[in-house]
Amino acid sequence: MRALQVAMDIYAEEIVAHYEHPHNKGRIDGASASFHEFSPYCGDDLTLYLDISDGKVTDAKFDGSGCAISVGSASMLTDLIKGKSVSEIVRMGPAQVIEMLGVDPGPVRLKCATLSLKAVHEAIKQYVKNGGGKT
Amino acid sequence: MKGTVDFDSIREDFPILGTKTTNDRPLVYLDSAATSQKPRKVINAVSRFYRTCNANPHRGSYKISEAATEAYEKSKKKAARLINAGAWEEIVYTRNTTESINLVAQTWADENIGKGDHILISEMEHHSNLVPWLMLAHRKGAVLDYIRLNGSRTGLDEGSMEEQMAKSPKLVSITQCSNVLGAIVDVKKVARRAHERGAKVLVDGAQSVPHMSVDVREIGADFLAFSAHKMLGPSGVGVLWGRRELLEQMPPFLGGGQMIRSVEFQDFTTTELPWKFEAGTANIEGAVGFGAALDYLRKIGMDRIREHDVMLTKYALEGMSRLKGVEAFGPGLDRLDSKAGVVSFEIAGAHPHDVATIFDGEGVAIRAGHHCAMPLVVQILGKPALARMSFYLYNNAQDVDAGIAAIEKVKRTFKLK
Fold this sequence. Notes:
heterodimer, A: 135 residues, alpha+beta, Sufe protein. Chain: A, 3 strands, 49% helix, 20% strand, disordered N terminus, B: 417 residues, alpha/beta, Aspartate Aminotransferase, domain 1, Aspartate Aminotransferase, domain 2, four-stranded antiparallel sheet, 15 helices
């Protein structure tokens, strides 16, 4: 019963450390793309900023507040996507978030864990819509 | 703890309390404000109904249909007795408290509330006693007013109540117990003031009726709404009690079978109470299970259940008060007489959803969120969410201890001082 073990593991040292001392916290002035995401379930509220150049994410930051799982995930995700190509990032899904966390937080809390990825995808969508990467 | 001896054997009646949950921990259930667990007597009553007399009541003249009719009506008689209703025909079964309130909003209120009229509720209402009135106000151009909370957020502000009553609302719809703060409202007093102003009074008893003696005639209410599932019964059965003369004047709610006397191609007439408000086949087995729940509660006694809730609440609040960085909301130890077994709390430095997940890891089921009272939690208390423990007759001091230990686990996880 792997799923039953999840609740204990999700608050393993790493995610708590990221929650207490988040990486990439803050805003990017004049960012290539940004998106504000809100979860009415948790009250999680975060804005994601991306700098994109030559089809690659050169910088990523986030601002806002939320539970340990959403903030910890945002911290880890912004680390993870730096240097990655936009095409690679848009292919990321919940499976990659679980892999990044090293634990499946269960169906309810997965919404918290994937909130920042959702914001990244929305930011990229807007970036593309606004003609980003075409010049 | 005094009095727990009698209640310890009660746990044996609830099969789920002996099961294991997350991390193979024994289940500690502290979420009865959301829904209650079911005793064997209720589970068996539902099963027995299916096995022995399952039929559609009122429609067959054969033996098991008559038995089903009798079982269904018997359940209503027990519900009427619980709240001291004038007659069992004043008991309308709905799906839940929410539907009971919506029924009044779409029938009595729809006919009696118009443009510019005032509807009065409080700042601590559950969405089920808020959104139906917002919908009505928007539909009719009526005004929805709120009785403010007092400064300590432990109950209603007297001055605000007087101020709002002076507007002569057509309806005052008020909770008898907040599902977030656990604050018990003196609804008798509210009803008296409302009636002096010519208003009708609806009491939301979802959190109160399962936990204390509620007498509709003593309160002087016009309507009372509550749910079976929060008082050991099955889900899918709600109660709307209304004074007979009001129910008789009201237009029907849903149209269909059962609620009619006669139907022609271009017209229909409605039947007598309470069937006028019960279109379609009811949740018969649910009503039968609810009857068994009412028997069970009656045997223990609502006053003793209330005493047990108070004891657990006192024990929990004392335990929390010894922990640094833990804040409990609503009436505190100095006001236990107006505090239900509902303890919303916050641990400084930990998000409520993380708190609930860590509790779950310890086998302790609690709820975190806005508890369907967003205006109260977000706008008044200024929190994105709150964690909440709530108790019932099958809980004991060990359950509270498990909750307190889980708070300590949260503090260790986030290295909180």
